Amino acid sequence: MGKGGASIPDEEWERFLREAEAGTQGAPEEPSARARMVTRRLQEETGRPEGWRTHQLAPRRRGKGWYAVGLLVTVGLLIVALDPGRMAGWFGGGGGESPPLAAESERPDKPPATQAAIQLPTLEEPFKGSPAVRWDDGTSGISLPAARATGWMSKKQVAHALDRTRDFLAASSLDRGVLRGERPTKAIALINPHQQDVQDYLAAAFSAPSRENDPLLLFSRLATTKVRLVGNVVKTRGRITYREGKRGAVEVTTDVTYVYPVVRAAPGSDEVARTIVRREVVMSWDDPAKVVIEPGTFSLVSYKVDTTNGGCDDFTGYLTPEFIAERAAKDSGHGPEVDPYDRSTSVDTLMQESGDKCRTATRS
């Protein structure tokens, strides 16, 4: 399995292993540093860079727009940010009047509706006042497409690759230990250990996080000395798609928004804030006869992130949410407004629109 020792659970991946062993003798050189081409691009271009690892794309910002944290910088916006939507029964405390949304099968054409009445989240209803109240919990909110034979993979192999893709999203953005700041060992074990530039990024991200080497590009980690999660539910909405990629690989694209309700770490804290993280990760399940790769792992093609209320331009390696008093103390005018629940626009477009500025979220 490569680093991390994760096992391959079925006969399809035993076949993968046999093909890998048979194919690596004539396999090409290790995969190129596709996921980190942005670094060279930044060195070569003077204009606005296109987003790959979103937050590091431009100087003085960690992620345009939401990733820049879309901080709610006025009291009015702060209140709105802690707002819209009805509780659809979370911990049995929402009344269940709003039905859950159907799975997302394609990019929506507009943002979710807002509500006129202000509804603040509570410990019992941490998603109250937010569109996420109608979202599913955890991996249930990440829709999978039907599998079909694609590239070098059979239908069963594609189905397994899709399952493993969702396993990676769970291990990187939903695992309770990782959310508490632990090293995402299970998620890292699914990344091709021969993709050296990515392995270098991972090593640096957890030892010396920086704008370029920020673990939050791929993983959700809270600064637990400052905040803690409310309850056991993270709301999600997103989808996984795939196509045939280079050299017959199965290229899988994930686009998922995660909503994390938090309170201050101090005992007795009851003001609930929300951090919203949207990630677009593209991965390549490569043919071992054509690419140097370990069975059951994928090569990263690109990874981008856009975050609301997670910390703006502070590269600590942890999400650092703020609360009403902290946000009210900040100056206003942090760039254009953005709705962090709007999934009708790609992360690349969001980044291009925001420039170098932290944006202001209209709700959280």
Protein traits:
9 strands, 7-stranded mixed beta sheet, two-stranded parallel ribbon, 364 residues, disordered N terminus, 9 helices, alpha+beta
Structure description:
This protein has 364 residues and is of the alpha+beta class. The protein has a domain at 11-56 and 87-93 and 120-306. Helices cover 22% and strands 16% of the residues. The strands form two sheets. Strands 1, 2, 3, 4, 5, 6 and 7 form a seven-stranded mixed β-sheet that branches. A two-stranded parallel sheet has the order 8-9. The chain is globular and about 55 Å long. The model is unreliable at 1-7 and 24-96 (pLDDT under 50).
The string of secondary-structure elements, in order, is HHHEEHHHHEEEEEHEHE
Shape type: globular
What fraction of residues sit in β-strands? 15-25%
User: How many DSSP H or I helices?
Assistant: 9
The main pleated sheet reads as:
7 strands, mixed
Radius of gyration, taken over Cα atoms and rounded to an integer in Å: 20 Å
Low-confidence stretches: 1-7, 24-96
Query: SS-based structural class?
Result: alpha+beta
Count of beta strands: 9
- Distance from N terminus to C terminus (CA atoms, Å) equals 39 Å
Sequence-ordered SSE layout with sheet pairings:
Elements: H1 11-23, H2 37-44, H3 75-81, E1 136-137, E2 142-143, H4 155-173, H5 176-179, H6 185-188, H7 196-207, E3 227-229, E4 235-244, E5 250-264, E6 273-285, E7 299-308, H8 324-328, E8 337-338, H9 347-354, E9 360-361
Parallel strand pairs: 2-4, 8-9
Antiparallel strand pairs: 1-4, 3-5, 4-5, 5-6, 6-7
